[in-house]
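Dear colleague,

Following up on yesterday's call, I've attached the two folding results inline so they're easy to grep. Please treat them as preliminary; we haven't cross-checked anything against experimental data yet. The first protein's sequence and structure tokens come first.
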Amino acid sequence: MDFAIDLRWPMNGLDTSDVADVKISLREHVLTRLFDVADNHGRDYFRASTVRLAFWFAENWWRLRWEPIDDARSPSPDWRLAHELSSGPGDEAWPPLMFYGVGDRVIVSPSNLRTIDDESVSYLLQKPLSIEAAHYETGVDTLLQSVLDRCASHNDAVPLQALIEQLRTERDDEELAGWRRLEACLGFDPDRSPQDVISAMVAYEERLGERAIDEAAVAAPGIIAPHALHRVLEAAEASAVIFRMDEFLNRTPMGRSSQIPWQAAEDAATSLRTALGLGERVYWHDLGDMLGVRWETLKTATATARQLPFGANLSTDDRTSRAALQFDTAMDRRFEIARHIGDIIWTRETRLGVISRAKTDRQKFQRRFAQELLVPVEALRRFVNFSRPTEEQMAQAARFFWVRPTVVRALLMAKGVIARETLADRLELA
């Protein structure tokens, strides 16, 4: 099994006891590897209440599956309670792991980059990893059923069984599952969201599509979501920037890939550069040619989404799309337009392309695609010594390619040239 939560029950244990040794693994990676201080040796499991563990996964199922991380540098307390296992109930030494959805995958990661110690154990942390959502769901379902089977006589067995049966009912009902999914994308626990907020977002789904609404929800979560989406749609309709999507799509065969987003984005950008015969630098007229727009329009058009939480491109028909841009400065706008191109490649067909700071796979693909399109790695080697890169070299490269120095730094991190210093850096490439 690609994702497994294995339970090792004590020999001759009482049926009323729910304590077991727990090992969480993702393919060949053991995520619960720790050093036992008292016994002076390493082991692959922690000891905990399996009923509490099952309650945590069941109660947070929808948010774990669908809600991305809200702020990779400093997640909110509410987010941490729903996604960090060490925030679970009880006094066990829970492993410092977090789980969150990014679309069709789930990220499993340490909740920080420091080895976690308490008086009895020291956890040896892994790098952030990802798993296909279907495999994650199977692993959690197996855990829940195992606990129900073993702990039938436990005091909390009845409420746990009721919670799991309710969860199964929700997942089997397409309409109810969609409601729960949208609640999670907005950052709400089940039945904790204002009904008018969810209803307003659902009303947009038929026009714009389920996945587009999910992206809009995580881009501006909470009660502001419908109003934010309404304003972004107005900004798109008011924009003078009209992409000719058929012209662009006919010139690039790339579509969504089974690779993780940043790898797929690299391949897509490289293929596009080759197909169009682009040189080292991408000029305004290159971007205009790709999108069937006069380059002067791309460069000077009003940023109608400048004060809004995210930008977007909104299809007007099968061939054209209006883009609500957020940035006025040339460097930022070039990168933003490259992200729009990446989004068109990712979806191939969409009524609404959301361009945001969210940490979903779709947004990761856009960002990585834009980096590779505007700053081809082989050309970057002329400016940066990949063995000993310096800040001056990165700044010089950024000036040549007309991008922010942060774009060059992110690309070098992706290539392993410089270290991914923070957890946020590592999560972007998970």
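Below is the second protein, in the same order (sequence, then structure):
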Amino acid sequence: MTAFITVFLTVFLAELGDKTQLATLIYATDADRPRWLVFTAASLALVVSSALAVALGGAAERWMTFLPLKLIAGVGFLLIGGWMIFDHVLAAR
């Protein structure tokens, strides 16, 4: 159960304010679109993209055992974060 809660909270927090949510919000503001249709389409898109991520992650774990995938992902996130901070500092000048 702890693993489920960890995954849920991580993905939930990562999605808050994401461009996906903003797109869904914009679609939901259109009076010509039923809310249930926006909810269903957005939910299905998230389920399909998550299924694809899990399938690719499983394949990567099976076929790329020679690579430290978690380390590569972690370094990638740090580099992107550093790049964003550096870009922000440059823009503030």
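For the second protein, one point worth flagging: The chain has a mean pLDDT of 89.

Best wishes,
A.L.
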